[in-house]
Amino acid sequence: MLPDTEKITAAMSTLTLKIRSDPGTYVRPRKGLLDFMQFPPEIRSLIYEFALVEPKRHDIDHKPSCMIRRYATRHNLFHPPPFLLQNVSISSDPPRLVTERLANDLCNCNKRAGMALLQTGRQVHAEAAPIFWSQNSFCFLSGYEAITALNHLLRPQYRDLVTSVSVMGPNFQGRPQHVQFADGTEHGPVPWSEFWEAVSKCRNLNAVNVPTVALQFPTRFHQLAMQRSTLRVKLIDLIPFAKGPGFGASYSYDLENLYTHFFSIYAQATYRVPSVGELRNAGTEIDSDFWWARGNESCHLISTIRETIEDTCLDLSTYTVEYSDSDTDASDEPYFYDAYAFRILPIIEDEKKRFLRLETGKDTFSSVKFYGLPTSRKERVRFARERRAENEEYKRLNGMYRQHSFDKEGCRRARKLREEQLDEETAAALKAYNKASSALTPATLQKQEKKKALKEKKKSMKDNAENRRRERKRVQN
Q: Where is the composition biased (Basic residues) (predicted)?
């Protein structure tokens, strides 16, 4: 017997083996853990606010990991703002807004987060919904989009909680190409009287941002402003500057032709309209013509800001492009038009200088916010270093750089595609040959039949010989 065996056996007899329960069985929660609803209401409100309240859609920038941002930084291109990288389709029967985003999740920076919190339970929804609807600013690209949402999509109890509405897009009429009707029809100018009627249904509304064109027909707005003397109104217009034809008016909206979005920047012009309460305190006479005059002042400000930006912020150049149309008769005279190119000057050379105070007149200044500016040189250098480090690590693991791996994979796919095409061509040629050889002469057919009969005879003789051999072997055994 081995030494100390008795001591070891005695020690093992005191051990207790604990078997864990199966994963599928119910495990009681440990004492001391708090349920979410056991938190004080003030703490829950802070959690709801942190999860649901976001900046305005126009103020959300690309995330550092966004593919659009990384591509623009890599190639030193303009950064298209996230809120313009989506299109909206309006259906009238039934009323619905369908948002189309970039394929393959190239950019989801503008997508609201935390919305699943509102669906976790009735009590959570009852507590969180007022915070979501009252503390967020709801932004639209078109007046049509806002009318559809406020009149048909929002429940009255939610619409009454809305406090801020904003409409801004790269079109001075308030109907950019980003928003289309599902039936493909063109509905013309936005009926701003209907917009103000829809906005008036928001009982707690205290701030509205609209394009200048919304005050060209100010009768309904005048009624709303007189009813709510503290309503804050700003006229915001997005001025596009795109390389190509139609400088100052054209912009990119096609998500399939994504590359065109990297050649446009935008300037936001803001004009504050005084509230009725402020005007009454100043003793100003208020009527519909007063708001119409404010709209004209904003139009003049937009023109001045555009001219100032062209003179101080951009280095413009033009080039001539020949218009080509396959449907045009070759005998027609060619049509030429001017296209524009520009280079941004150091005053707005990167996204850190997006806020600019421009002198629009004698002792007159206006604040302008730019969208789409490229990243700073420091950011581009940092990004280049990160890419180099990633490539070196990729080479260490795979024996080649990432681009070489992509090229090799592309060559492999091209070679496989060519082989498939050759196989299809060979099969088609063989099929055509068999079809052509089916119409044979009688002599050839007779020769083939004799050959086939001889082949079958040889096979039969071989089978008979094999059967006789097996029979002899069986008899001998």
A: 449-460
